[in-house]
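JOB MANIFEST
job_type = single_chain_structure
chain_count = 1
residues = 357
[input]
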Amino acid sequence: GGAKRTSRTRARTRTSADAEQPKSRSKAGRTKKGAAPLNTSILTGPNGGGGGGGESKLAPKLTYDKAFPFLHGGDASIPKVILLTTGAGPAGKNTPGWFTSVAVKYKKGKKYDVMFAHNAEEEPAGISRNFKVSEFPAVVFARSDGAGGGRYKVLPAATLNTFMKVSDNIKTVVNFVDDAKARSLESISTSDDFAEMPKFPEPRKPRKQADVKYAALTEDNADVDCFGGNAVICVIAVVDAPAGDDFNENAAMAEIAKKYRNDPLSFVWVDAESNADFIHPFGLTPEDTPRLVAVKSGKRNRFTIYDPEGALDVKGASDFLDKILGGDARFTGMQALPTFEPSYLKTTDEEDEEEAA
């Protein structure tokens, strides 16, 4: 009788034990609460690895055309953080899991102390180019002034790549964000470790509200108003303008820009004499004025030129632009877009002769 009771007792013990959730498994299995263990594997690949799959709601993918509203839209006082990666392969295009883990720390209920996004380097590289980042992965902390400007700071690739564990990356980026976040826009406005916010193209407005896109081309707006902006084609008026905007074609160009303000065109002008290096890749010299140069930038850089053979008028320019918009214009390929040299770097022939002497 004692043996039977012992057998029944053991059976009941096994049954009750089986009904309970297992409290632990092997080291390679799950944790006490049944959750997968934190993956602190070695970071692999050029992007810092750490896994991650697809779109992250806390750190969504960011493209060049959405950079302005992300940085300056909504509550502009909220700091923004962008992870920049190479975009090579599936892992590069997805938001790494460790970066999402960082973003979680700055979400308080439905509110965000900091907003996060991920940009896989585009072709041509827009966001990384504007923030002057060429090595990946890198993290950008940006604080907007609410008017399209502000300040930013970069956590470089060299800093992130020195760490071997995902947890170390998380800790490093959190410290970086916390330190930058603790400082006001006023305190970083003159700080050497923060740089001036680069320009990004503003979202295109509805047709009825479209602004006239016409300005002098400068080193500050070359990548926004001409190459890489919302407009598909940049129309450059090459003119003789030694006295600034007081040149013969200015009124006609303003009228042309207004006429085509709802089309994917942007209009700028340059003085041929002081920008000889800029117009040279188009096969032009300072004597070749006036000219209109229409440039398509992107994976394949191309241009076409209109020579009015005299004074520039609205009708002749309109015929040229209508052919482009209608797909009938012939473009010439070019390997690289010209760079606009800042005025303070330009020298005159007289200055060159003085230096030589």
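[summary]
The domain at 64-196 is CATH 3.40.30.10 (Glutaredoxin).
The chain has two domains: 64-196, 207-342.
exit_status = 0
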